[in-house]
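Structure ticket #2291
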Amino acid sequence: MKSSYNGKPVPTEGKPIGYSGGELQVPDTPIIPFIEGDGTGRDIWKASRRVFDAAVEHAYGGKRRVAWFEVFAGEKAFKTFNEWLPNDTV
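Resolution: structure written out below.
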């Protein structure tokens, strides 16, 4: 796994999800990329993240959590990188 995408470091507290022997290998703190979105997407993401984090907390009793990692697409990507969909996001 690369140490950064679009110049932003990958979360060090998380690990990537792997695949071996026909099975997913999911660490206790998987790195999950997200795209915040344009327009109302920002507000929806803020609320959604709280719900997702609470669901993981409830399901695993604090033994697992998500290491969220923002990747860029759309307006935010264009304003930051002058590209609508940077190669690192794909």
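Closing remark: The longest helix spans residues 41-60.
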